[in-house]
Amino acid sequence: VMSILLHGDAAFAGQGVVYETFHLSDLPSYTTNGTIHVVVNNQIGFTTDPRMARSSPYPTDVARVVNAPIFHVNADDPEAVMYVCSVAAEWRNTFNKDVVVDLVCYRRRGHNEMDEPMFTQPLMYKQIHKQVPVLKKYADKLIADGTVTLQEFEEEIAKYDRICEEAYTRSKDNKILHIKHWLDSPWPGFFNADGEPKSMSCPPTGISEELLTHIGNVASSVPLEDFKIHSGLSRILKARSEMTRSRLVDWALAEYMAFGSVLKEGIHVRLSGQDVERGTF
């Protein structure tokens, strides 16, 4: 399994969650053994120029905090993009560390159907309108090289257009829109045909008092003989032992019994984080 995250340039530079996840990227118990971050850098966030959106030269500079390699590549050159992506995958596979691919490109149209980018970026969009689209640029190169013929290229385009047209035609046959299918996809068999939850039976999860007492006694004892423990801890353990004897529980003992009973069934329990390590809860 390889984790890949796709980002926009403005989001990559501006969202705190990106910085936070980079800082989780190499922590024991939290790492994914390297994530490949692909940044679609069209050099404009909604309508904001980069110079108004961030203080660093590149949107990807936030990745320097963990010394992740950052590849800036001209997205108008598909072969360079493919080369960089395979290097990124190889880096991740070899070193199990995060890596960033910065696709330097442009956005041909506005942010949405209502947005006219010429209002806010007239000079930039005059340049963009002069740019040859990447598909045409690459097709012309392949045809000039003799890698494909004009006829093969046109057949591929026609084939793709046909797929889109057929899907569009089929969409007109849909008379009813099931909005909830878009909003969530529940597990099959979870709801009945009317969308109501099926009656669910919960198996009893209780355990015998004898087992609870056993867990309580283990949780309030010290496994090693002649092991000197902190006086503060011995007070806690003594109180826990008395609670078990009196058939009472507090939050901490209840958690102990929950974990203990699951462990007794042979199920692994992993606790992580600072509060767990020092026993706050």
From TrEMBL:
Dehydrogenase E1 component domain segment(s): 2-179
Listed cofactors: thiamine diphosphate
GO terms, molecular function: oxoglutarate dehydrogenase (succinyl-transferring) activity; thiamine pyrophosphate binding
UniProt keyword annotation of Nuclease present: no
GO CC aspect terms: mitochondrion; oxoglutarate dehydrogenase complex
GO biological process, one term: tricarboxylic acid cycle
Highest rank taxon of the organism: Eukaryota
Entry keywords, A to Z: Oxidoreductase, Thiamine pyrophosphate, Transit peptide
PANTHER family with a match to the protein in the record: 2-OXOGLUTARATE DEHYDROGENASE, 2-OXOGLUTARATE DEHYDROGENASE-LIKE, MITOCHONDRIAL
Family statement drawn from the similarity comment of this UniProt entry: Belongs to the alpha-ketoglutarate dehydrogenase family.
Name of protein: OGDHL protein
Lineage of origin: Eukaryota, Metazoa, Chordata, Craniata, Vertebrata
